[in-house]
Amino acid sequence: MKTIEELERFMTEPSEALLRDLGQTEGDIMILGVGGKMGPTLAKMAKRAVNQLGDDRKVIGVSRFSSVEKKEELERHGVETIACDLMDEASIDHLPFAANIIYMAGNKFGTTGNEPFTWAMNAYVPGRIADKFRDANIVAFSTGNVYPLTKVASNGCSEEHPVGPVGEYAQSCLGRERILEHFCHVNGTNMLLFRLNYAIDLRYGVLLEIAKQVYEGKPVDVTMGSVNVIWQGDANEYALRSLLHTDNPARVLNVTGPETLSVRWLAHQFAKEFGTTAIIASEEAEESLLNNAAKAHRLFGYPRVSAQDMIQMIAEWMKQGGKVSDKPTHFQEREGAF
């Protein structure tokens, strides 16, 4: 892939499984927080799927849309857009009803020093949304950060593992889940909590950060010795297919790739792609933030894009000077300060 257009065509191509599952749902699809890193490609994938199914239902993207270009781009792809500040209750009240809600809004970076806003965005607003859309089918994005660090040999945290969020961002995300679960119980709403880490695009993400350090001859910190990743297109597909798997009480689903990847190994793989040598800094700690997504793989199958595919695509993207976003994941953070 040489252009962003080629990348997004590949990333938003609906699979036969997605078409089958989405065809079993009814009603419009509204994506709240569509303006983030994943939202635009999720909306485009949903619209392509609806078009291929021959449906007349709407795909609606809701965001503040501080970027007019992003709003116009979505509209060019047939996604209806609504500018809305979810921190404004009157704006929420004026949103139309949609039978299917993908809730992606939240705040992570900039939490330190701005904790009250993060808690309001991550734990107060979800309650307003859950009450507004009490009769909808809701898939709500969450994060593997609600889990504690675990030993690599443990194979990561399954959905049954006790939560143990580190830092205020992760704590506020657990707050979001608890508030959503409360309204799910009170209102009888069907819901799924989508605990994701980490989605990978060629323009940002854990693998790009490691690749960039290797490419620029900078040392790679391996204290957070292992990670889980999933291609963004696969994560978006899982989210849309999850509309068939909401439940009451709310269902929890971990979402990531099947491998536990060594950061040291990833650095050396990128070094091979670049014809250079990886500089490794530090030593691996005994524990990492790891997510076991075996249940998601049983429901949806393994991701279509493998870890090795992602490594090769990112290396080629970098070598040809592909556009990247300055949006670090801070996946090495062990104290929860974002």
Identify the strand order in the major beta sheet. 3-2-1-4-5-7-12
User: Any idea of the CATH class of the domain at 4-199 and 231-256 and 289-301?
Assistant: Alpha Beta
Helix content: 25-40%
Beta-strand content bin: 15-25%
User: What is the overall number of helices?
Assistant: 12
| CATH homologous superfamily heading of the domain at 4-199 and 231-256 and 289-301 | NAD(P)-binding Rossmann-like Domain
The third-level CATH topology of the domain at 4-199 and 231-256 and 289-301 is Rossmann fold
Structural class: alpha/beta
Q: In terms of per-residue confidence, which ranges show pLDDT below 50 for 5 or more consecutive residues? A: none
| Rg from Cα | 19 Å
- The CATH architecture name of the domain at 4-199 and 231-256 and 289-301 reads 3-Layer(aba) Sandwich
Q: Shape, please?
A: globular
Taken in chain order, the helices and strands follow as: HHEHEHEHEHEEHEEHEEEHEEHEEHH
Biggest sheet features: 7 strands, parallel
Give the tally of β-strands. 15
The average pLDDT value, as a whole number, equals: 95
Distance between the termini: 32 Å
Protein name: Nucleoside-diphosphate-sugar epimerase
Pfam families: Epimerase (PF01370)
Domain NAD-dependent epimerase/dehydratase: 29-221
Organism: Salimicrobium halophilum
